[in-house]
Fold this protein.
Amino acid sequence: MAGDEILVRAVGAHKVYNSGIVRVHALRGVDLQIRQGEMVAVMGPSGCGKTTLLNCLSGLDDLTEGEVFIEDVPLNKMSDRAKTRYRALRMGFIFQSYNLLPVLSAAENVELPLLVAGVVPKDARVRAGEFLTAVGLSDFGHHKPSELSAGQQQRVAVARALANRPAIVWADEPTGNLDSDTSAQIMQLLHEMNRGNRQTFVVVTHDPAIGAYADRILRMKNGQIVEEVTPDRVGA
Ligand SMILES: Nc1ncnc2c1ncn2[C@@H]1O[C@H](COP(=O)(O)OP(=O)(O)O)[C@@H](O)[C@H]1O
Ligand SMILES: [Mg+2]
């Protein structure tokens, strides 16, 4: 079960995009707390602000108003450099479109963020192998992304996100391009990692079947969290 320690906190979060003449108020006063070890699903219709929320919580983008605290440190007090470093060391990212580098092998894709975080190459290679094994791809390390199925590519992306043993993993519609069986496998994998390593997961999804894996579901509508649900899971 999730601990009591608050890992991520948003207070009065607003985000306004100003692109020329169009002004979009994408987050309209979001308050939330995410505890260490929790798996939180963020659900809601297209355009309601899910990706914006993830980007602002993880420091990829800045709020217009309000504050985000990560491990009690206000993100807006961190320099860009410090944020980048913090992300490399403490965060993992999984995207709908995998975002693997096509010229690198599966193993090299997993190694890359480790090298960025300062792991020595020999150790990065070993750890990439371990994580590819954990996602069921021990025999595919030398394959390029184009030689892998969609589900296998997303497994590589999961291995890449987790190899640095991040405190928190952000996943934006990680199963959006996958069929329902493959989606279930990926979610099972994330669930195991969440339970096994007490890592915190924040997963944006459209899929109610995926929400069922979460400890909590935050429902968004029009830039706000309008409902918080704890799914019933007998025996979970
Ligand atoms: N970079 C951007 N510039 C301007 N508007 C944006 C930008 N990104 C998102 N938006 C707008 O902000 C709103 C929320 O978008 P988004 O966070 O992507 O929603 P979701 O992920 O829930 O589909 C939408 O109206 C979208 O068009
Ligand atoms: Mg989105």
Observations:
- The chain has a mean pLDDT of 92.
- The chain has one domain: 38-62+78-229.
- The chain is about 35% helix and 30% strand.
- Helices lie at 50-57, 80-90, 106-116, 121-134, 150-162, 180-197, 208-211.
